[in-house]
Amino acid sequence: MSKLTNSQVVLGAVIIGFFIASAIYTASVDTDDVDPTPNEPVHVDTATLVHATEAQMSQSDQPSVSAQKPVVKSQAIEGDPMEELNSLIGLEDVKAEVRSLANMVKIQKEREAKGLKNTPITYHCVFSGSPGTGKTTVARILARIYKDLGVLKSGHLVETDRSGLIGEYVGQTAPKTNAIIDSALGGVLFIDEAYALTERRGQDYGGEAIATLLKRMEDDRDNLVVIVAGYKDEMRRFVDSNPGLRSRFTRFIDFPDYTGEELYKIYLMRANKYGYKLDADADALLQEQLNQAVEHKNRYFGNGRYVRNLFESCVTFQATRLSKVRNPSVEQLQQLTIEDVQKAYNSVIQ
């Protein structure tokens, strides 16, 4: 037999390697096709509510696991949640509702301790209102109140929405929904824009997610509280769309839009936090602009989020202006002028 040349040996090795790689690739594809169940979502732990009024402006700032599967897990923090609730700007009716609920739970616990019968209490809630009105903030506070009253063990909050509960293919939705519910046990599951679960979108699995949620609310009724949130009319239709939802969600708390004065106070609170001051002209213009923004708002108006964006835009324009000043003074670095406020107002979409 003639000897193989070096080029023949190399060519043979390349061919053998190609077939081995093809076999490995084929095996991996077959394995994926056999089990379509997605991996359990990763949860992002975040510190919450450094200050109550700050939280009113920074809802939904936490990072998501991915664009398709947003899940945020916020651990309960130390401090008096009732004090934090009371420190929120505006939301007087919301505060009264939460205090009333807390008092009800407290007295029922007292009755139980003395051997008396309890009236059934619905801990699950519907938070209805426009974006940026404090729904997520109050949900975090309520979770901690439930913990302090012995309703929940940990008092953490898990935030998600339709995309965090519904899978893309048959067989994915129930495991995905169950995984998120598992992460919320001992705390509150907060589902934002929950009405989207009943919207038909092609091959839709929203009904499966709702059925899974209702079953777990019954099975884990002593270890799970669910808060669903969204626009008022849409949330009413959502609850009325299913007898199971209607029987479990009987407590509605409406979050009103902020007034111009309340938005002004929220703005000042943020400015003071970061060491900024408005001169007299800028202050007057800001109040006028916020009142106009409220007067001409649409249903998508951002409320507290709008103020946050407006403040950040002011700071950006101040920085641009001061970049042309050599060695600016401390006062200049703190001052927001009428020019900064006007440019920020023009740049922020209402």
Task: Walk me through what this model shows.
This protein folds into 2 domains: 44-255, Rossmann fold (3-Layer(aba) Sandwich), CATH 3.40.50; 260-347, Helicase, Ruva Protein, domain 3 (Orthogonal Bundle). 53% of the residues lie in helices and 10% in strands. The protein contains 15 helices and 9 strands. The protein starts with 5 loop residues before the first helix and ends with a helix.
Short description:
The protein is α/β, with parallel strands linked by helices and 350 residues long. Helix content is 53%, strand content 10%.
Overview features:
alpha/beta; Helicase, Ruva Protein, domain 3; 350 residues; 53% helix; single chain; Rossmann fold; two-stranded parallel ribbon
Percentage of residues in strands: 5-15%
Can you say what the CATH homologous superfamily of the largest domain is?
Answer: P-loop containing nucleotide triphosphate hydrolases
What's the shape?
Answer: globular
Mean pLDDT: 84
Total beta-strand segments: 9
Gap between N and C termini, in Å? 84 Å
Binned, the helix content reads 40-55%
Radius of gyration: 27 Å
Q: Which structural class fits the helix and strand makeup?
A: alpha/beta
Order of helices and strands: HEHEHHEHEHHEHEHHEHEHHHEH
Largest sheet, order of strands side by side? 1-2-4-5-6-3-7
In CATH, the topology of the largest domain is named: Rossmann fold
Architecture of the largest domain, CATH level 2? 3-Layer(aba) Sandwich
The major sheet is characterized as:
7 strands, mixed
> Count of helical segments?
15
CATH secondary-structure class of the largest domain: Alpha Beta
Number of domains: 2
Low-confidence stretches: 18-51, 60-69
